[in-house]
Amino acid sequence: MTFQHPSFGLISDDRVVIFDTTLRDGEQSPGFSMNIDEKLRVAHALAELGVDVIEAGFPVASTGDFESVQTIADNVRGSVICALARSGGKRDIEAAGEALKNAERSRIHNFISTSPLHMKYKLRMEPETVLEIIAKGNQQARHFTNDVEWSAEDGCRTEPDFLCRCVEMAIKNGATTINIPDTVGFSTPEEIQAIFAMLRERVPGADEVIFSTHNHNDLGLAVANTLASIEGGARQIECTINGIGERAGNAALEEIIMALRTRRDRYGKSNNIKTEKLLGLSRLLASITGFDVQPNKAIVGRNAFAHESGIHQDGVLKHAGTYEIMTPESVGWTSSSMVMGKHSGRAAFRDKLQSMGYKPLEEAAFNEAFQRFKDLADQKKIVFEDDIRALIDENERGHNQLQLVELEVQAGTTSPSKITLTLSDNGEIKKVSTQGNGPVDAVFKAINEAFPHQATLGLFSVANVTQGTDAQARTTVRLEENGRLVDGQGADVDTVVSAAKAYLHALNKLLVKRQRTAPEEIIS
Known about the structure:
Layout: E1 2-5, E2 9-12, E3 17-20, H1 36-49, E4 53-57, H2 63-75, E5 80-86, H3 90-99, E6 106-113, H4 116-123, H5 127-142, E7 148-153, H6 160-172, E8 177-182, H7 189-202, E9 210-215, H8 222-232, E10 236-239, H9 253-262, H10 264-267, H11 278-289, H12 310-318, H13 346-355, H14 363-379, H15 385-395, E11 402-410, E12 417-425, E13 428-436, H16 439-450, E14 456-464, E15 473-481, E16 484-492, H17 495-514
Parallel strand pairs: 3-4, 3-10, 4-5, 5-6, 6-7, 7-8, 8-9, 9-10
Antiparallel strand pairs: 1-2, 11-12, 12-13, 14-15, 15-16
Helix pairs in contact: 1-2, 1-11, 2-3, 5-6, 6-7, 7-8, 11-15, 14-15, 16-17
Subunit structure: Homodimer.
Cofactor: Mn(2+)
Enzyme class: transferase
């Protein structure tokens, strides 16, 4: 069986379309925010990964969202660029069409709730009104693009007969992809497989569209439900890097892709993802958002290919397949994490960055990164790949209104810790001295004095980037202001400096988020 799709042409039944919503649904995560430059970096990386569709944002939500989608549509090639819109929001669809007008290939993704619960309490609409809106929304979207996706928000809790009517209405009025999301992460694999099988059997025209699945992870079943959806007939999967998203997150792209690859005997489905780029993109996103993945995270966690048990180590040494069902290299890990030292030169550093998957840096950025590498090498005996990743990722951050210039610390057991801090606020130098209950408390007070704000500290966490007493500390700081949550990260061999960088990173992200307006309604 094959599908004729307006963006992809003839698609064989063994092909799965990969739809990434990291920049839209993923960015709805509490504490996550990205500026336009950072979103563009992620979008380029997604295109290079081989993602078929990049959902770039919700243009009507704010000026910032519109500009982000427009910038990605103007600059990213190789993937379909998608924008979200409400089915009943004429202005939504117009904004999406305008933002996408320069895209190489574009898609408008419109949605409306269909479950009894949502229609009664959220929409306050009768079913017949919802059907009318589905028809009008898809018709309007077709004026801007021939690639139109429609979603039944809370589709997995929708009554089957009404869901069939909604899907039929969307197809009749121009939708080419039909998405049935498990918006609240309620379904089980057996249930969601049955939903897709039912729709494909009962709905007229079902063989003329691609069915899509979008699963949230509230019960820890997002990846399992995605794989079950494929067995039920879904041929597009909606997912995010590192599984980021609202509440417990979305189905993780890297886990789904490697499940399909490793168990091709079971699923028999192919895709265009270049799996060796998965780790690099995971770490890029973690650096930008300030959210590290947990150590035991499948595929991209630092323990994913680590073996401590003597029995396991013995088996792997004899044959890797005894305890590894995929190779580390297949997802971007390298066999050695040790890199260079203080005697390494510019050519070696440039070559190392290339081997780690980084694009060539502009000369000024490379010079700055190389100098920071040399400074780090002077402080550490051995510089590891993870050290370099932390250095480069921090070097490429776009949040830069507030910058740490200098920090002096006096601490001990006999008196309060004292801090003298100098920072730059859009080029204006501010210097303050404070004391506190420990150096971290003192440095945060100093930043607050230099840049007064009302945000409160919700999380302070320190972890090591690599091993050893000279390892860099990676600090995570979470700030909250008027319901806005942001996480910042900093890395340095000095834990107090690392904490100061993390706090400033969070403040810079908060400044960006202050300028954004939350949309009235967003699909999950």
